[in-house]
Design a protein that fits this description.
By secondary structure, the protein is mostly helical. The chain has three domains: 16-119, 2-Layer Sandwich (Dna Ligase, domain 1); 128-213, no CATH class; 227-365, no CATH class. Helix content is 50%, strand content 7%. It has 14 helices and six strands. The longest helix has 50 residues, at 2-51. The N and C termini lie far apart (129 Å).
């Protein structure tokens, strides 16, 4: 009997010891993990503070966003270094439930813990009086003029920052030198800005929005077409300036691709207007000879860069053109913006002389 009691006591003590050992090890793992996160946060904050300058980003969450989706979006924007590590940290801290929808102000200078705290705080209420609307087809300079008219900063300040500041996005790294470096990437949309916004804040919001719109699916599609992102944006910018009827966007895209395929000059008036820094006006014959890498009458291929900032519909059309053998289109209804499409040059010339005669047509007829 005594031996049984001794064995039972030993067994119970063993269980208690193992339980205490397990709890102790779990506590040590938790402590070292949290210390590691804290050290990482402090180290990253010091590193970022010493070497980089980051600006606030408006981060919008809808009701359907899960923790996994939020982590992936944060990683894509460069706000956190790794989505899986972020989710693991939130799980360790017991904060892995879904986030509430709303608009939050984040930047890349925040640690994972700080990002999580902001996303679980009350969403920022946008300042209605500082709502700005960037319209499809505006150029970088159009945007600068508009923001100056709102009293935020001067046109020159905006243009300088847009052309010289490094915003850290990979798609901006290899752009060729051109007069408006961010042309095509300042995504047209409605934004809410701070009471006294800087050019950096406004531009960053537009670049973030572009990065969200030109998603992974779009990038794969561009690769399928054998195009760079800049070439897709370039084509989309032409479509944006040329088309008013939504159904014609994929058709104009097809005309552009068909001409590029046979090395035929695009001969698009909007590129000449952009080259000459003109918005509207009747082109004369001498304008078509204007010496510029943006002039698609003088040069084959795409212009040096985008000629406007296109919206989502034009980007989508550039990536998914219509099927057709058209090589020409001409405006036939100035009120609606409707075009006539054909692959026959004689038909095109007849339509052009009928609906959109040039000043030199009369001289040719005499």
């Amino acid at each position: 009997m005594l031996k049984f009691l001794v064995n039972l006591l030993s067994w119970l003590l063993g269980i208690c010891f193992n339980a205490l050992l397990f709890v102790g090890l779990a506590y040590l793992v938790y402590t070292f993990t949290m210390r590691g996160f804290e050290f990482g946060d402090e180290f990253s904050e010091r590193l970022v503070y010493e070497h980089e300058e980051y600006y606030d980003i408006e981060f919008v969450l809808d009701e359907t966003a899960t923790v996994e989706e939020v982590a992936e979006m944060l990683e894509e924007l460069g706000i956190i270094p790794d989505a899986r590590l972020f989710r693991f940290e939130m799980w360790i801290m017991g904060r892995d439930e879904d986030y509430n929808p709303g608009t939050f102000i984040l930047n890349r200078n925040l640690s994972g813990t700080q990002v999580n705290a902001r996303l679980r705080a009350r969403p920022v209420e946008p300042v209605v009086e500082n709502r700005i609307t960037i319209r499809e087809g505006w150029t970088q300079r159009d945007i600068a003029v508009y923001l100056e008219s709102r009293g935020f900063f001067t046109e020159e300040e905006f243009m300088y920052v847009a052309n010289n500041h490094d915003f850290g996005f990979h798609f901006l790294r290899d752009l060729p030198e051109r007069r408006s470096r961010l042309e095509g990437y300042l995504f047209p949309d409605t934004y809410f800005v701070s009471e006294h916004p800087t050019p950096e804040e406004v531009i960053m919001n537009m670049l973030v929005r572009f990065n969200n719109v030109f998603n992974f699916e779009y990038r794969l599609r561009a690769e399928e077409l054998g195009l760079t992102m800049d070439e897709v944006v370039n084509i989309a910018s032409i479509i944006e300036r040329e088309v008013r009827v939504p159904s014609e966007r994929p058709m104009v895209a097809r005309v552009i691709y068909n001409r590029l395929d046979i090395n035929m000059p695009l001969q698009i008036d909007a590129t000449v207007l952009y080259a000459m820094d003109m918005h509207l006006g009747r082109l004369l014959y001498e304008h078509l000879e204007y010496d510029s890498p943006f002039n698609t009458y003088r040069n084959t291929g795409l212009p040096l860069g985008p000629i406007s900032n296109p919206g989502a519909a034009s980007i989508n059309a550039a990536l998914f053109p219509a099927d057709g053998n058209w090589l020409f289109y001409v405006l036939v209804d100035a009120e609606t913006g409707a075009h006539f499409f054909t692959n026959d040059h004689a038909q095109h010339e007849h339509a052009r002389r009928t609906y959109m005669p040039r000043p030199w047509d009369r001289a040719d007829d005499e």
